Each structure stands twice: as C-alpha cells, then as structure tokens.
Amino acid sequence: MPNLVRFGVSLEDDLLNKFDRHIKQHKYTNRSEAVRDLIREELVKKEWTENKEVTGAITIVYDHHTRELVNKVLDIQHDHYASILSTQHIHLDHHNCFEIIVTSGKATEIEKLFMKLKSTKGVKHAGFLMATKGEGLK
Ligand code: NI
C-alpha cells in the first residue's frame, strides 16, 4: 500500500464550483479520486508525447465493397504487425465493417499506423484511444 500524502490546493471559488459540478457529473464520490484521475490522465499523455511503450486502440469503419480497400487495410496492418496485439472485425451490415485494432508498442509507431489507416481512401471513420501499459501508475 503506497503512503498517502495530503496537500492543500488554493484556487478560485468559481473554478472549484465548476470542478465540483464536473466530478458530480462523472460520478466521483470525492475530489481526491477526481484529482488522482486528472494526474493519471496527464501522465498517460506524457508517456505518448515522450514516445514510451504504450497501449492503445484504433477503430475503423469502411465498406468492404470499395475496390482494393480490404487488401489495403490488411497490407497496412501487416506492415505494422509488431505494434498490433489483435484485430477484431465486425460485419455491421451488408456493406460496412468495423475493426478494433488493439495496439502495443512505441507511441510514434502506433500513431503512424493510425494515420496510415485514417488517410486510406474509403475509410469512413477512424478513431483513436491513447492508453497506458499501467506501469508506474497507481
Ligand atoms: Ni466485414
């Protein structure tokens, strides 16, 4: 169990009121956990900007009838196989496919993979989630 350290924070009452409304909307039971989450969020962003080993998820939606698109999407994923842990393919309807690509590796490599998929002609939407391997976060 890590040592808990208490510290005081001074801020304008307007800002604190906004923060309290925010944490209520997000179902936090106290300010401490909300502050801890904000700190963790910043630390995860830092892992990405400092090109650490991270995890993430990429989603894409595309029409598999679009000429050569399935092959292009597959080629890109094979070019980046070292950053990909798994890919789940869901057939949304007769035309549209949804893929969730779970990634792990250097942040810049995952970003390259995302940008290649996003900029592929015919990909209707590409989503990106930055996550962490969790080391160093409590
Ligand atoms: Ni499909």
What is the helical fraction, as a range of percent?
A: 25-40%
Give the count of helical stretches. 4
Largest sheet data = 4 strands, antiparallel
Order of helices and strands: HHEHEEHE
Reading off the top of the CATH hierarchy, the class of the largest domain is best stated as Alpha Beta
Strand order of the largest sheet: 2-3-1-4
Oligomer: single chain
- Provide the number of structural domains: 2
Supply the helix-strand structural class.
Answer: alpha+beta
Average pLDDT, all residues? 95
Just name the CATH architecture of the largest domain.
2-Layer Sandwich
* Total number of strands: 4
Low-confidence stretches: none
- The shape, in one word, is elongated
Cα gyration radius (Å): 20 Å
Identify the CATH homologous superfamily of the largest domain. Answer: ACT-like. Chain A, domain 2
Strand content: 25-35%
CATH fold name of the largest domain, please?
Answer: Alpha-Beta Plaits
Question: What small-molecule ligands were found?
Answer: nickel (II) ion
